[in-house]
Amino acid sequence: MPAQVITVTSGKGGVGKTTAVANLAVALATSGSKVVCIDGDIGLRNLDVILGLENRIVYDIVDVIEGRCRLKQAMIRDKKTPNLYLIPAAQTRDKNAVSPSDMNRLIKDLRADCDYVLIDSPAGIERGFRNAIAAADRVIVVTNPEISAVRDADRVIGILEAEDKGPGELVINRLNPKLVKKNDMLSPEDVLDLLAIELIGIVPEDENVIISSNRGAPVAYDPKSRAGQAFRNIARRIKGETVPFLDLESQGNLWERIQRLAGRK
Amino acid sequence: MTETNSSIQIKGLRDGLLVSLDDAPWDEQRTAFLTQVDAQPAFFKGARLALDVASQVLHVNDLVDLRDQLSERGIFLWAVISESPTTEKTAQLLGLATRVSKPRPEEARQFAVTDLGEDTALFLDRTLRSGTRIEFAGHVVVFGDVNPGAEIVAEGNVIIWGRLRGMVHAGSKGNTAAVICALDLSPTQLRIAGEASAMLSPQQNPRPEIARINENGKLQAEFWSPG
């Protein structure tokens, strides 16, 4: 079966696109799919660091496009998960080194021999973003439960609709259930109320994400991490499974937990 | 400014002309195009021209020839767009651009309607997201929400069957009798004719409201009540 090409984008920077790509790639690959992720953030590459593959880069995406190497040579195989590959971005070039038609050609070659291609889009709605969505079959929009991120997501969804890439599917990243409860953070309902697109995952705020990013081992490997669990659930939803959303309040106080347990009986 | 001659399409771009050819043999295409140019020298003279050659594979001398022939006619060829990597490389070699920015569809639209009666309205059956701007010389009806960052500028009234959270300007050519109605009126900003108002924090239980300019010349919103 030809690969499904999924672009992860957001509009606003710093909402967790790259983290989401790394974790979804790990989660999809550890569940048996062959996954190639592409860092579309040329000039500001990060995905290699988060995946812990930085020191293995020889060729990058611009080398492939400009014909200095073959596609296979730029695909770095992950050390932990052998069916996970990364095509890194060039660090010494900028977004103009690649065009949407270059991306289309490159991905056409990839489609035949993997299950998923995940593209990490740069922030913004300019050239790099256009490149990243050019070949997408499916787009995941990542946002945070804060107004500026949601506004930017709305803008991005508008562009996706105009370009016939569908409205996309939403991941709400870094949700803090305690703050939501105190009415100090937008709730998933508030976000969905404005964006009105399908929700594919809610990832709770989790300090393990930062720790694991710095170690180059995405949190999706960590069976105990709640964020890791959330990313694994999203990966299963991508594959078409129906997975209930995490109960985000289960870290509430002891009394509440007992009440919930009692209520479950 | 769209003309069709066999397979040649000519469109006006923001900063010049876009000529689209197809995959028919290059010599035929080139000759047909030059014939068309010679038929309307005044139209083409001084034009900035972008050429879309579909998947034609062109080499340096093909493009150099064409560029020379065009410049003899006072036409400046600045871009060649192609699906063929070879042609793209050739164009890059010659210092030609290989893409032109197309206007983003759907995002900012001005609806040009001629002969607009007083009762003409534009009906939009969708939610307007951030970055969308609608300009219309009559009334505008939206069946959906208007999100923050979206803008509607209408010469007549604006009716939103949904939540209004963006910016709406009704009576934009000075009609002070224009009104703005919404099921939930919580805009970033409202304008009617020359009056502007930033107001109306979101309500807990939204009710339909109508905004108009009152007797004192101030923009005011009130709840709609049946009967």
Termini separation of chain A: 45 Å
Largest interface: A-B, 15 and 19 residues
Rg of chain B: 25 Å
| Beta-strand segment tally of chain B | 17
Task: Write the CATH architecture name of the largest domain in chain B.
Answer: 3 Solenoid
Largest sheet of chain B: 6 strands, mixed
Structure description:
The complex is a heterodimer of chains A (265) and B (227). In chain A, strands 3-4-2-5-1-6-7-8 form an eight-stranded mixed β-sheet, sandwiched between helices. By secondary structure, chain A is α/β, with parallel strands linked by helices. Chain A has helices spanning 17-30, 47-50, 61-65, 71-74, 100-111, 127-134, 147-162, 177-181, 188-195, 207-215, 226-238, 254-264; strands at residues 4-9, 35-39, 76-77, 84-87, 116-120, 138-143, 169-175, 198-204. The longest helix of chain A has 16 residues, at 147-162. The model of chain A has no long low-confidence stretch (mean pLDDT 91). The termini of chain B are far apart. Chain B has four helices and 17 strands.
Question: How would you summarize this macromolecular structure in one to three sentences?
Answer:
The complex is a heterodimer of chains A (about 260) and B (about 230). Chain A has helices spanning about 15-30, 45-50, 60-65, 70-75, 100-110, 125-135, 145-160, 175-180, 190-195, 205-215, 225-240, 255-265; strands at about 5-10, 35-40, 75, 85, 115-120, 140-145, 170-175, 200-205.
